[in-house]
Automatic annotation (TrEMBL):
Gene this protein is translated from: Slc44a5
Keywords assigned by UniProt, alphabetized: Antiport, Cell membrane, Glycoprotein, Membrane, Transmembrane, Transmembrane helix, Transport
Chief location of this protein within or outside the cell: membrane
Protein name in UniProt: Choline transporter-like protein
Entry's localization field: Cell membrane
Origin organism lineage: Eukaryota, Metazoa, Chordata, Craniata, Vertebrata
Length: 685
C-alpha cells in the first residue's frame, strides 16, 4: 500500500481549512439574531437582551391593511411603521377617539400610547400630523401573537368572519370598515394558525409515544437482521417464488384475454377495429372490441415468452447471483460490525449538514442594516431608494412624498466581503456537497475493504484478519483519502451544476420561451443521467481501491472494463439484488407498520391498557413505518455493498486464477459447483 492521489489529498485538506476559515469569517460578521428576532422599522431586534426592546418581544404593525398577506409580513417589508411591543392589543380603539377622551379618561391614552413610537406623549398633536408622521397607529384591533408578530384575532361565528365577535371596525380615518376587508390576510393567517394547532397536537403525540416509537424501530432493526440472516437460506426460494408467480399471473392474463376475445364473438359491433371508432375518452369503449383483447393477449404472450427464454438462457447466471446473495449473508454473519457502520456515515453527514446550515445562516445575516424609503404614493420617485434614518427628516423627500418614511428594509452592505456573499454561499454549498460525497465514499471503501478481506481469505473464517472493519477504515484514511476526495469532487461538481440548473429552471418558469425551457429540461436530464453513471463508477472504483490500493482513475478504469466483460452477470445480479432487498424493506416496514397499527388503535387486548391517549394515532404510526423503512435501508445498504464487493472479487477471481494448485480459486464451494468446476486440473502451459 502507498498513498494515492496525493495532489487531490493536499487540495482537499486546503479546502477544508479554507472552509473552516470561511465559517469563522461568517461567524464574526454574521448575526443569527436577525433570523430569530423580528426587526422593527429602525433595524432593532424585538426581545434582544440588553436593549430597550428586551421586554418587547412582539412586532406590531401600525396599519395591517397595507400588508397584502401574512407571507408578506413574515418575509418582506410591509409599507407601514413596525414597532416592538410587549403585548398585542386586546381591544378596538382609534387615535381620534382616544385623543378626544384623554382628558377625562387618561387610562385609555396610557394604554394606546404603548403602541406609538417610543417617547411620543403628545395627545394634543393634530390627528392629521400624527397620521402623516405615523407617530401612532390610526387604529388598534384585538390581536394575538404568532411568529412573534401581532395578527388580528380572527374567528368565525355562525359562518361569519369576526374579530372579537365584531364584523365591523373603525379605521381611525373617519370610515367604518368590514372585517371582510382583511379576508385575504385572514384566510392565510387562519390556515397557518390551524397548522400551528395541528403542530402542537403532533408534538404532544410525540412527547407521550416516543418510547413506543423507539420500541417499534428496535423491532425493525431485529427484523432486518433476521431477514439478512435468512437470505442465506431463502434467497433462492424467494426469487423463484416471485418469478413463477409472475409467470402464473401473466398466464392467467393470457387466458382471461382469450376468454374475453371468445366471449365477444358474434356480439354486434365487437368486430370493429380501433381505427374504425377513432379516439374515445371512455376507455371502456375499447374493451368492447375483440381486437383490443387480441392485442392484449399477443403482448402478454410476448412478455411470457421473453421471461421464459431469459430464465432458460440466464439460469446459470441467476444461480450465480443467488449464490452471491447467500455468500453476502454469510460474510455479514462473520463481520457483524459492518451492520452498524452506517451510523458513522450518518454522523459524518449530520456534522456536514449542521456546519453548512450554520455557516449559511451566518453568511445570510452578515450585512449591516439597510434602510429604504417607504412611500404610500406609487408615483414617488424616491420610493425604494436607500436612506439614512438620522437625516431623513431634514431632506425634501417628506415634502415631495407626504407620508414617506425611512424604514429598515434588509441586511446588506457595500464592502468587498458583502459584495461576494453570494459567491461565498456557492462555495459553502459546493464544499458541503464535496464533504458529504466524501463521507459516503469513505463508508463504501471501508465496507468494501472489510468484505474483500472475507472473500480473499482462503480458509473462511480462519484466514479473515482480526478487526477487518477497523483495519479497512484505517487503510482508507491513511492511504486513500486523496482518491476518495477525487471521486467525491467529480460527483460534487456535477451535483452543483444540477443545483444551478434547478435554480435557473425555477427562475425561468414564467418565461414564454419554449426553446429555453426545452434546453433546460434536456440539460437537467443529461446531468441526472451523468450523476447516476458517476455514482455507479465511483462505487465500483472504491471497491477496487479497497482491494488493490491503486489510484482513483486506474481503479475506475479497471472496474469499468471488468464490469463490461461481465455485463450480463452485472445486470442479472443487480436486478436480483434490488428485488430481494426491496422485498425485505417492504416486509420489514409493512410488518412493523401492521403491528404498530394494531397497537396504537388498541386492537391488541394484552397491551390495550398501555396505549397512550393520542390526538392522531397516525403520527407515531407513520413515524414507525418511515423509520422502519429507513432502518431497513441502512442495514440493506451494507448488504448491497457486500454483494457488489463479492461480485467484483468473484470476477477478478475468475480472471486471475484457474483453480490449479498454483492459482487456486478463492470462491466458495457453492460457486465452484455452479460453475461446474468442482474437479479442477492444473492449468496447461
Amino acid at each position: 500500500r502507498h498513498c494515492t492521489d496525493i495532489i487531490c489529498c493536499v487540495i482537499f485538506i486546503v479546502v477544508i481549512l479554507g472552509y473552516i476559515a470561511l465559517g469563522v469569517v461568517a461567524w464574526v460578521h454574521g448575526d443569527p439574531r436577525k433570523v430569530i428576532y423580528p426587526t422593527d422599522s429602525y433595524g432593532q431586534f424585538c426581545g434582544q437582551r440588553g436593549t430597550l426592546n428586551e421586554n418587547k418581544t412582539i412586532l406590531f404593525y401600525f396599519n395591517i391593511l397595507k400588508c397584502a398577506s401574512p407571507v408578506v409580513l413574515i418575509n418582506l417589508q410591509c409599507p407601514t411603521t413596525q414597532l416592538c411591543v410587549s403585548k398585542c392589543p386586546d381591544r378596538f380603539a382609534t387615535y381620534i377617539d382616544v385623543q378626544a377622551s384623554y382628558r377625562y379618561r387618561p387610562d385609555q391614552w396610557n394604554y394606546f400610547r404603548q403602541f406609538c413610537k417610543p417617547g411620543f406623549n403628545n395627545p394634543r398633536k393634530s390627528v392629521a400630523q400624527v397620521l402623516r408622521d405615523e407617530d401612532c397607529p390610526s387604529m388598534i384591533i384585538p390581536s394575538r401573537p404568532f411568529l412573534k408578530r401581532c395578527f388580528p384575532d380572527f374567528s368565525t361565528k355562525n359562518g361569519v368572519l369576526t374579530v372579537a365577535n365584531q364584523t365591523t371596525f373603525k379605521d381611525g380615518r373617519g370610515k367604518t370598515r368590514n372585517v371582510t376587508d382583511l379576508r385575504e390576510a385572514a384566510n392565510g393567517i387562519n390556515n397557518v394558525l390551524d397548522a400551528r394547532s395541528v403542530g402542537m397536537k403532533i408534538f404532544e403525540d410525540y412527547a407521550i409515544s416516543w418510547y413506543w416509537i423507539l420500541i417499534g424501530l428496535f423491532i425493525a432493526m431485529m427484523l432486518s437482521l433476521l431477514f439478512l440472516v435468512l437470505l442465506r437460506f431463502t434467497a433462492g426460494v424467494l426469487f423463484w417464488i416471485f418469478i413463477f408467480g409472475v409467470i402464473g399471473i401473466i398466464g392467467y392474463g393470457i387466458w382471461h384475454c382469450y376468454w374475453e376475445y371468445d366471449h365477444l364473438k358474434g356480439i354486434p359491433g365487437s368486430d370493429l377495429t380501433v381505427y374504425d371508432i377513432g379516439f374515445q375518452t371512455d376507455f371502456k369503449v375499447y374493451l368492447q372490441l375483440r381486437q383490443t383483447w387480441l392485442a392484449f393477449m399477443i403482448i402478454l404472450c410476448g412478455v411470457e415468452v421473453i421471461i421464459i427464454l431469459m430464465l432458460i438462457f440466464l439460469r446459470n447466471r441467476i444461480r450465480i447471483a443467488i449464490a452471491l446473495l447467500k455468500e453476502g449473508s454469510r460474510a455479514i454473519g462473520y463481520i457483524m460490525s459492518t451492520l452498524f457502520y452506517p451510523i458513522v456515515t450518518f454522523l459524518l453527514i449530520a456534522i456536514c449538514i449542521s456546519y453548512w446550515a450554520v455557516t449559511a445562516v451566518f453568511l445570510a445575516t452578515s450585512g449591516e442594516p439597510v434602510y429604504k424609503v417607504m412611500a404610500n404614493q406609487t408615483l414617488c420617485k424616491y420610493a425604494n431608494l436607500t436612506c439614512d434614518p438620522e437625516t431623513f427628516n431634514t431632506t425634501n423627500v417628506t415634502k415631495l412624498c407626504p407620508g414617506a418614511q425611512c424604514t429598515f428594509a434588509f441586511y446588506g452592505g457595500e464592502s468587498l466581503y458583502h459584495k461576494y456573499i453570494f459567491i461565498f454561499q456557492l462555495a459553502n454549498a459546493f464544499v458541503f456537497l464535496w464533504l458529504v460525497n466524501f463521507a459516503i465514499a469513505l463508508g463504501q471503501c471501508t465496507l468494501a475493504g472489510a468484505f474483500a478481506s472475507y472473500y480473499w481469505a482462503y480458509r473462511k473464517p480462519a484466514d479473515i484478519p482480526l478487526w477487518p472493519l477497523f483495519s479497512s477504515f484505517g487503510r482508507a484514511i491513511r492511504y486513500h483519502t486523496g482518491s476518495l476526495a477525487f471521486g467525491a469532487l467529480i460527483l460534487a461538481i456535477v451535483q452543483l451544476i444540477r443545483v444551478i440548473l434547478e435554480y435557473l429552471d425555477h427562475k425561468l418558469k414564467g418565461t414564454q420561451n419554449s426553446f429555453t425551457r426545452f434546453l433546460l429540461c434536456c440539460l437537467k436530464c443529461c446531468f441526472w443521467c451523468l450523476e447516476k453513471f458517476l455514482k455507479f463508477i465511483n462505487r465500483n472504483a472504491y471497491i477496487m481501491i479497497a482491494i488493490y490500493g491503486k489510484n482513483f482513475c486506474t481503479s475506475a478504469k479497471e472496474a469499468f472494463f471488468l464490469l463490461m466483460r461481465n455485463v450480463v452477470r452485472v445486470a442479472v445480479l443487480d436486478k436480483v439484488t434490488d428485488f430481494l432487498l426491496f422485498l425485505g424493506k417492504i416486509l420489514v416496514a409493512g410488518g412493523v407498520g401492521v403491528l404498530a397499527f394494531f397497537f396504537f388503535t388498541q386492537r391488541i387486548p394484552v397491551f390495550a391498557q398501555e396505549v397512550p391517549m393520542l390526538n392522531y394515532y397516525w403520527v407515531p404510526l407513520l413515524t414507525v413505518i418511515i423509520g422502519s423503512y429507513l432502518v431497513a435501508h441502512g442495514f440493506f445498504s451494507v448488504y448491497a455493498m457486500c454483494v457488489d464487493t463479492l461480485f467484483l472479487c468473484f470476477c477478478e477471481d475468475l480472471e486471475r486464477n484457474d483453480g490449479s494448485t498454483a492459482k487456486p480459486y478463492f470462491m466458495s464451494a457453492s460457486l465452484h459447483r455452479i460453475l461446474g468446476k468442482k474437479k479442477l486440473s492444473p492449468k496447461k502451459a
